[in-house]
Specification:
- The complex is a heterodimer of chains A (about 425) and B (about 600).
- Chain A contains 12 helices and 13 strands.
- With about 425 residues, chain A is of the alpha/beta class.
- In chain A, helix 6 links the parallel strand 9 and strand 10.
- The two termini of chain A are about 25 Å apart.
- The N terminus of chain A is likely disordered.
- Chain B has 17 helices and 22 strands.
- An 8-stranded mixed sheet of chain B has the order 13-12-11-14-15-16-22-19, sandwiched between helices. Chain B has a 5-stranded mixed sheet with strand order 3-2-1-4-10, with helices on both faces.
- In chain B, a hairpin with a 4-residue loop joins strand 11 and strand 12.
- Chain B is globular.
- In chain B, about 55% of the residues are buried.
- The chains are: A alpha/beta (about 425), B alpha/beta (about 600).
- Chains A and B meet through helix 4, helix 9 and strand 13 of A and loops of B.
């Protein structure tokens, strides 16, 4: 009940009015009418809100007879609502005041299963309060099966999940799902081939964050493919890591790739090693290795910060084919400028599905694309309609914009 | 072979010893210009019972001599040189593809890099590449050895590693070849020629691997760095070894080698030579095609880079079944405008396969054969595009502007918009009853974009001129321009797609006998007569989204040459996609055929 405050009884309010009338006995009759408290509203009804989880109560009432649209000046400026649990002594004021001419209000701070009683008073401009009108029967908010405010969220969720399932089934049936070519992933064979022809190693840097970062995991997925290609070409792959857990995971990944390529004998775990947790200590070590060993192919896949440009520039200077992938927006321009190929954000996360070609992953990738298409389409429609509304002022469009903003996009919709 | 002063060369005799016929041509200096004057043909005699290629050569040359009224062969059966008293010739040159031409096996470390370069070198030298062995070809070593044993190549080219690069893998490849002991096609005493054009540091190690059963030649690396190819030395070595080993062991060739004034070249290598020379001299991009019975050769020169591919299973007789299988009957029949029974067509295909020398006797048969030719050429060109690429494994230079347009290495260099000259040769193209049919086949199969000159090599003279270009480039060029090519005309095709019937190009043509202007609707073809010696100025204004060479929607003014067919405006869009609905497709094809007057 932090939003409520206990209600004081009427004498507290009447006292200044009486004093006012004593100090100014000659005021006109009209003035004395204004100072009177307004007449109370009637028929206060409290009912459990439909389509919610049991946290809302809908209130409705008839306007105070003094609350008329024509009244000038107004005799009623607002309504104060109070609530108490059954068995409690005092009412507490609810946060939020319905203004004049309002006949409904929703109390959104209830607890499921409790019994509530409500009271309403009309408020005059001088803060004079009408007599109270109360509900006689307690209302109990209850949970419904469907939360109607989240209907759009449900529809969109169904569309996305449905398309994921649909595309998985399509992929399983053997039909080819068209996935845009990602140059950075296609170039892996080329980069490893270059290393093979030149008799030099491939360098894989899995970012500087730990294994709990999603970018590191995505990077290791790519490492799995790079290692398999390297095993097939019989090229050496070197993976310096910044975290010990990443090293352990990378070792497992590379070993299984060599096994899958039928070259377990060629796997050398010493090529996957831990350097240091310190950002620039790690960078100094990696760039030193690059300058000394001159790898022909460098892969930077994971989360990068200030070291991105140092690594990419060093790789460029030794003439390596470089493929980078990160979801760090601030580092992308550096990678794009200094590397041969760069996987940008989503491309990086799609790598796993792209490279594996597994029906589950491909279907999920396509299904998520459907979700993005729905989101972008709704946003575009919203922008268009909002622009039209601001230009034309058409009320119908305004209503549609408000519906789209509050229901489909925001509130319980696409962006809950 | 004596070195001759080009100024003293007035009469040139050239032969091309094919598998079935030996073709001879006579080139003479007429009014200060070299012209091809006479030609003769005789069966090739490389097989038993004659088993001497020179007999066929003498027969063909004798025919030319008789036609020219010039004695070219003396009583001993030798070619008379130099000219004296109106007899004999100044030089004699020859090419050869008899006995299946030059067949090679190539090997490299990475299939898409050094192995691809080795393949390019072999194809460019005029060889047929039987197989490519690479460390990443997904075959196990014993399978690779087995394959090498099964092949009987004339020659092997081994590459791999950049200079100072991988040596281990190169030696591994050598170690696969050495124990396999590949056997040559000709002669048991013949030592297999093997050219090593890989990492120079690995050469001594490779030499150690092979014993005396192999004739090893070490040449400079054909991929010294991944950024650059150096195919010249390997190609020269292939030509030398072709003469020294392959030709020397073929029946009668040792005699023929002595007769010629320039090294005998493999026929496709010579064709490539002349195309390169022409493209270089005229500063143009050119594509040539030779469609044969068993194979289709495609040659291209784009921005000075020469490429050749041999589509071994695409041809008009021995390989016709394969064309039908690869292209699928619906794709072939989309070019046909008359009712045909598919079952009968299949029988016709098989008949052609078992009787390869038959030629169409009815209109139906001709239409069907030309439809197959379109598909064979289309597929061969597709293979060519996939092979003629930029180098793989090369470091790319990027800017931030490339964020969303990162292109892979190994993109095709074949750009139809940049294509200036398209030359067709081979029976189905050269001997088509109407010139329009040749032009239509070339346009439908190659889909040239923008402005492209079309020509055909009617008597397949390009091989002769290819060898001649090495001895006397001026003579080769003059004959090529005046006598070799039959110019069919110019094709103007806007690139893009639109709605059928909507205008895609407005044109204004003036010059020669033409003064035309109008609009070309999408899906239409128009033919304007423009004689071979005429040129016209065209102003083209493509509609939005269409490109004729100046960029999408941008106007272009150019001079175009005429030909035996004329000026063709092709508004069918690029890529060319006939309607998928059979009835609509037939209607469209019928209108195209009518416009070009292809068939009676």
């Amino acid at each position: 009940m932090q939003h409520a405050q206990a209600e004081k009884e009427q004498p507290m309010v009447r006292r200044p009015i009486l004093a006012f009338m004593l100090v100014f006995p000659l005021v006109s009759s009209a003035t004395s009418v204004l100072a009177d408290p307004p007449r109370p509203p009637a028929n206060l009804v409290a009912s459990d809100a439909k389509g919610d989880v049991g946290k809302k109560v809908d209130l409705s009432w008839d306007l105070s007879p003094d609350d008329t649209a024509e009244a000038k000046p107004r005799r009623v400026i607002a309504y104060h609502l109070f609530r108490k649990e059954a068995g409690e002594a005092e009412f507490a004021k609810l946060k939020g005041e319905p203004t004049y001419q309002s006949t409904s209000f929703t109390d959104e701070n209830c607890e499921r299963g409790k019994q509530y009683l409500y009271r309403i008073r009309a408020v005059a401009p001088g803060n004079e309060l009408s007599t109270a009108v109360e509900t006689t029967e307690a209302v109990i908010p209850e949970m419904e099966y469907f939360v109607f405010s989240r209907v759009w969220y449900g529809i969109i969720l169904l569309a996305v999940c449905g398309s994921v399932t649909f595309f998985i089934e399509v992929a399983r049936s053997g039909r080819e799902l068209k996935i845009r070519k990602i140059a950075g992933l296609e170039a892996i064979d080329e980069a490893v081939g270059r290393a093979t022809e030149m008799g030099r190693p491939c360098l894989f840097v899995p970012g500087i964050l730990d294994i709990n970062d999603i970018q590191t995991i995505a990077g290791l997925t790519v490492l799995s493919h790079v290692a398999q290609v390297a095993a097939e070409y019989d090229a050496q792959i070197e993976v310096p890591t910044c975290r010990s857990l990443v090293m352990a995971t990378a070792r497992e990944t590379v070993e299984s790739s060599y096994l899958a390529a039928g070259r377990p004998d060629a796997y050398n775990e010493d090529n996957i090693y831990y350097v240091t947790d310190e950002q620039f200590g790690y960078v100094a070590s990696v760039t030193g290795t690059m300058v000394r060993e001159e790898p022909a192919a460098c892969f930077y896949m994971g989360a990068f910060f200030a070291e991105s440009l140092i690594l990419a520039e060093t790789g460029n200077s030794i003439g390596a084919i470089q493929v980078a992938g990160t979801a760090m927006p601030s580092q992308l321009p550096f990678f794009v400028a200094a590397c041969d190929y760069t996987l940008i954000g989503e491309e990086f996360f799609a790598a796993s599905a792209y490279l594996s070609g597994e029906p589950h992953q491909l279907g999920s990738l396509k299904g998520q694309d459907v979700g993005k298409v729905i989101g972008v389409t709704l946003l575009l429609i919203g922008c268009l309609m909002a622009t039209l509304y601001s230009v034309t002022g058409n009320e119908t469009i305004g209503t549609l914009v408000s519906f789209l903003t509050n229901n489909v996009l925001g509130g319980g919709g696409f962006l809950p | 072979m004596t070195k001759l002063n080009p100024d003293n060369i007035n009469v040139i005799l050239a032969t091309d010893c094919g598998s079935t016929t030996t073709k001879a041509i006579l080139i003479e200096k007429v009014d200060g210009h070299y012209r091809q004057t006479f030609r003769g043909e005789a069966p090739t005699t490389v097989e038993e019972p004659a088993a001497d290629v020179t007999i066929g050569v003498v027969n063909a040359v004798t025919e030319v001599g008789e036609l020219a009224g010039r004695r070219l062969v003396d009583d001993d059966g030798h070619i008379i040189r130099p000219t004296s008293n109106g007899d004999g010739c100044d030089i004699y040159i020859s090419t050869s593809s008899a006995g299946g031409g030059l067949q090679m096996m190539v090997a490299g470390v990475v299939r898409e890099m050094t192995a691809a370069s080795a393949k390019r070198a072999a194809l460019g030298a005029g060889a047929i590449v039987m197989d490519v062995i690479a460390s990443n070809d997904r075959r196990l070593p014993h399978q690779q050895i087995q394959r090498i044993r099964e092949l009987r190549p004339d020659m092997i080219l081994v590459s791999g590693g950049t200079d100072g690069g991988n040596a281990t893998k190169v030696v591994e490849i050598a170690e696969l070849i050495a124990p396999a002991k590949p056997q040559p096609r000709f002669g048991s005493e013949y030592r297999m020629p093997l050219i090593y054009a890989g990492n120079k540091d690995a050469a001594p190690l490779v030499e150690k691997v092979f014993d005396d059963s192999v004739e090893l030649s070490v040449v400079p690396n054909l991929r010294p760095v991944l950024e650059r190819e150096n195919l010249g030395p390997a190609r020269d070595a292939i030509h030398d070894l072709f003469l020294e080993h392959v030709m020397a062991h073929a029946p009668g060739y040792n005699k023929l080698i002595e007769w010629t004034d320039a090294p005998i070249m493999p026929t496709p290598g010579a064709v490539g030579n002349i195309l390169q020379t022409i493209a270089e001299r005229q500063g143009i991009n050119a594509v040539g095609v030779d469609i044969g019975g068993a194979t289709t050769d495609v040659f291209s020169v784009f921005n000075g880079t020469f490429n050749r591919t041999v589509s071994a299973n695409l041809g008009m007789s021995y390989s016709i079944s394969n064309v039908c299988a690869e292209a699928a009957m619906p794709n072939i029949l989309r070019w046909v405008h008359i009712d045909m029974d598919e079952r009968e067509l299949r029988n016709r295909v098989k008949n052609k396969m078992i009787r390869p020398t038959t030629i169409p006797q009815t209109l139906d048969a001709l239409v069907f054969e030309q439809a197959i030719a379109r598909e064979a050429l289309r597929l061969a060109y597709k293979q060519h595009k996939e092979f003629a690429t930029t180098l793989k494994g090369v470091q790319q230079q990027r800017t931030v502007g490339d964020t969303f347009s990162q292109e892979l290495g190994g993109q095709t260099i074949v750009d139809n918009m940049q294509l200036d000259l398209l030359v067709g040769s081979g029976g189905v193209l050269s001997h088509a009853p109407r010139m329009q049919q040749t032009a239509a086949m070339l346009i439908d199969a190659f889909q040239p974009e923008g402005i492209t000159m079309l020509a055909k090599d009617s008597i397949f003279m390009m091989p002769h001129l290819g060898v001649l270009s090495q001895v006397h480039p001026q003579a080769a060029l003059e004959v090529f321009e005046r006598d070799c090519l039959v110019y069919l005309g110019t094709c103007i095709a806007p690139k893009g797609a639109g709605k059928s019937g909507k205008p895609c190009l407005s044109y204004q043509i003036s010059g020669g006998s033409l003064n035309e202007s109008g609009e070309l609707a999408f899906g239409d073809l128009k033919l304007f007569p423009l004689a071979p010696e005429e040129t016209a100025s065209v102003t083209l204004e493509p509609s939005r989204g269409f490109d004729v060479g100046a960029g999408a929607g941008k106007p272009l003014t150019a001079d175009v040459k005429g030909g035996t067919v004329g000026l063709i405006l092709d508004g069918r869009g690029r890529p060319l996609a006939p309607p998928t609905n059979a009835a609509e497709c037939r209607e469209a094809v019928t209108s195209w055929i009518g416009e070009l007057d292809l068939y009676p």
